[in-house]
Amino acid sequence: MSRYVIQRLLMSIPVLIIISIVVFIVIQLPPGDYMSTVQAQLQSLGGLTEDEAVKVAEQLRHTYGLDKPLYIQYFVWIKNILTKGDFGFSFQYRKPVADVIWERMGWTILIASLCHLVSTLVGIVIGIYSATHQYSIGDNVATFLAFVGLSVPGFFLALIAMYILAVKVGVEAGGLFSQRYILAPWGWGKFLDLLSHIWIPIVIVGFAGTARNMRVMRGNLLDVLNLPYVLTARSKGLKEREVIFKHAVPNALHPLIMYQGMVLPFMIQGELIASTVLNIPTAGPMFLNAINTQDMYLAGSFLLLLAVVLVVGNLLADIVLAWIDPRIRYD
């Protein structure tokens, strides 16, 4: 097993290198750069002439190395990441990229992890119920909600939630805190206020994940329940509850465990959309602004971190799968 882990870690290195190259090229594809935005602002807001604004923008490009060839910019970026842990400088926020990302990554990981936990547990429970009560009213309702969860975009659910809560119910739907608690020190009141707000993005982002997990669990468990060893367990007189939860459910969980390695980046992606609509201080608005203003080091570093999470998550999923199922061998 240790040999397999080492092999996977070594294989992940070229994968991350290729991903970093693709990311750096993609964020450079739009015409212009952040200094083009600065140039426009100097003309419209700073009162400079076009020639003066162009001169200032060129000086800034030279200062930050944006006038160098693309491959040189890439190698400098990767070299600083590997040797110094320096992801570059955020032009928009006027500070190192690492500081900008970690300031918001805490809330991002918290919300995405809670969404992941809730969607996995609720999806598995509903999937087990639907499979063991096939074609019942509860199964039909759960299947219908699963189709809705997979087909309705997250931003649309966020808009609906904001409308219902703000207009119909009359409560605040945006942000993580009420106005009076935004700058207040941490206390029991602020914690309760956080709980009254944080469930909204968790439900919105976790709805699609719950639907996906429910459908996968239902389909897998229905297949497992018809396998010979399950029929043998029933013929031995075991209780139905023991047959389902001791023999059928563990084997039906395999695809879900493999999927867990990919799910956290997708949860973060869903959180980006919901947080932008709900005005939550996470990485969502930060990444959107970085794309709009072509703050390339900030956008590229965030995408690279998502790729690292995906690679590590897949490795952990394989290890957990081998741990719960002794039939699986990687040597």
Briefly summarize what is shown.
The protein contains 13 helices and two strands; from the N terminus they run ααααββααααααααα.
Description:
The structure is a single chain. The chain is an all-alpha fold. It folds into two domains: 96 residues, no CATH class; 224 residues, MetI-like (MetI-like fold). It contains 13 helices and two strands. A hairpin with a 4-residue loop joins strand 1 and strand 2. Helix 8 packs across helix 10. It is globular, with a radius of gyration of 25 Å. The mean pLDDT is 80.
- Kindly state the percentage of residues in helix: over 70%
Which architecture of the largest domain does the CATH hierarchy give at level 2?
A: Orthogonal Bundle
Structural class of the secondary structure composition?
mainly alpha
Mean pLDDT reading: 80
DSSP summary, beta strand count: 2
Number of domains: 2
Query: Quick one: overall form?
Result: globular
